[in-house]
Design brief:
The complex is a heterodimer of chains A (about 160) and B (about 260). With about 160 residues, chain A is an alpha+beta fold. Helices cover about 30% and strands about 15% of the residues of chain A. Chain A folds into 2 domains: about 80 residues, Beta-grasp domain (Ubiquitin-like (UB roll), Roll), CATH 3.10.20; about 60 residues, [2Fe-2S]-binding domain (DNA polymerase, domain 1, Orthogonal Bundle). In chain A, helix 2 packs across helix 5. Helices cover about 30% and strands about 25% of the residues of chain B. Among the domains of chain B are: about 45 residues; about 100 residues, Enolase-like, domain 1. In chain B, strands 4-5-10-6-7 form a 5-stranded antiparallel beta sheet. A 4-stranded antiparallel beta sheet of chain B has the order 11-12-13-14, sandwiched between helices. A 3-stranded parallel beta sheet of chain B has the order 1-3-2, with no helix packed on it. Classes of the chains: A alpha+beta (about 160), B alpha+beta (about 260). Chains A and B meet through strand 4 and helix 3 of A and helix 2 and helix 5 of B.
Chain lengths: ~160, ~260
């Protein structure tokens, strides 16, 4: 075991790791940040998406030691400093962009990465960007609506 | 997953020195990690290539463009756009955005998955694979399914692409994995056309020489209307039979010619 340090949600953190410790396990088991969900553990579902140095990555498919020293942001870092929901989280709530909620952390992190790159995506661009995030409640339309609403746009009703 | 030691060198020289017995290079890991989770690979040491600045980036040089071996797909999709749009478009269609932020060109080329996209671009462009030891022409590099000319411990440091007059990559996506069920890269150079096909053959990426000859004489979809590929060596799985893949090769080649213009 070796001590691996990084910055998570703006705070310096450290936890014991083996070579094989995944970033998802580091966050959940090492730091107790269980907002990052593990769905498939095979990089298909996107529930574990976090930002590493500003880029969305699937934390189940990255070794913790390989991102030592990185600046990591998880769903726990998305709320406003006063604890209220961020614009994007509020938009998911307002648009019923979640049902069971399991995929939501990954959906929010992927959506935030998209909006950081492209502040006014088209509906098609949103759907393409979220193709690595699976919602087994199949609530995609409201998720897309939430992302569009965050960027100040509306989606026509089905 | 079996445990291992992870080493993260900062220079290529240190990485090469670390590639001893039982060591495996780790680039983006988007194939290697799932493989290790299934215990299909058991390296004693992983040598991460993601912290080496000299393996990163896209630049012009040698009459084409040079892409560092550890450059992620997302960076190629953006930075190669102005030099080689067909290559940038290919990179932007691999996996999904999070996978593209980690997966690298060198990792894809070194793995040589029979359904991966980059081998089609490298072979279709007549690229040069640069390693820590030598340069290998793409025609001599891809040896079969998951087989390349790389020696043990050899690291892909860059891929050099000549830039064709026009080119396009069209893939028929396997919708769950977004790998190519069949993908065709067509590139028209002053001295002829190259056609490379991925996803179809049990031997991995290959050139379709009959289509190349026909398209070199007449770069239109009609030029290959009568051509077919034998289904004997084609991949057959639950996503598509060998006959279906052989058929798709022709269809995707025509579409690529149309897209290339």
């Amino acid at each position: 075991m070796t001590k691996t340090t990084m910055t998570v949600n703006g705070k310096p953190v450290a936890a014991e790791t083996e070579g094989r410790t995944l970033l998802s396990a580091y966050l959940r088991e090492g730091l107790g940040l269980t907002g990052t969900h593990i769905g498939c553990d095979t990089s298909q579902c996107g529930a574990c998406v976090v930002h590493v140095d500003g880029k969305a990555v699937k934390s189940c498919s990255v070794f913790a030691q390989d991102v030592e020293g990185a600046d990591v942001k998880t769903i726990e870092g998305m709320a406003n400093p006063d604890g209220s929901l961020s614009v994007i989280q509020q938009a998911f709530q307002d648009n019923h962009g979640l049902q069971c909620g399991f995929c939501t952390p990954g959906m929010v992190m992927s959506s935030a990465a998209l909006l950081a790159e492209n502040a006014n995506p088209t509906e098609t661009e949103v759907r393409h960007y979220l193709e690595g995030n699976i919602c087994r409640c199949t609530g995609y339309h409201n998720i897309v609506k939430a992302v569009m609403a965050t960027s100040g746009q509306t989606v026509p009703a089905e | 997953m079996y445990n291992f030691d992870l080493i993260k060198p900062k220079t290529l020289a240190d990485a090469v020195a670390a590639m001893g017995d039982g060591a495996q290079a780790l680039s983006g890991g988007q194939t290697l990690l799932p493989t290790m989770k299934q215990r299909l690979a058991d390296p004693g040491t992983l040598v991460s290539l993601t912290g080496i600045p000299e393996l990163q980036g896209v630049c012009q040089g040698d009459g084409g463009i040079i892409i560092g071996g550890a450059t992620p797909h997302a960076v190629v999709a953006k930075e190669a756009l102005k030099y080689y749009p067909a290559l940038a478009a290919l990179a932007g269609q691999i996996g999904d955005p999070a996978v593209r932020n980690r997966g690298t060109i060198g990792g894809s080329i070194a793995n040589n998955d029979p359904s991966a996209c980059y081998p089609a671009a490298a072979l279709g462009s007549g690229a040069i694979i640069q390693t820590n030891a030598r340069e290998i022409a793409a025609d001599d590099y891809f040896l079969g399914m998951f087989e390349t000319a790389l020696d043990d411990g050899e690291i892909v440091t860059a891929v050099k692409f000549p830039v064709p007059q026009v080119a396009a990559y069209i893939k028929f996506v396997q919708p769950a994995s977004r790998f190519a069920l069949v993908g065709v890269f067509v590139a028209k150079f002053a001295d002829g056309v190259r056609v490379a096909i991925t996803g179809a053959s049990n031997n991995g990426v290959f050139r379709w020489s009959e289509a190349e000859a026909a398209l070199s004489a007449n770069f239109t979809p009609d030029a290959i209307a009568g051509l077919t590929l034998p289904a004997d060596d084609m991949i057959a799985d639950l996503h598509g039979s060998a006959d279906y893949r052989a058929h798709l090769c022709g269809v995707m080649t025509k579409r690529a010619v149309i897209a290339a213009g």
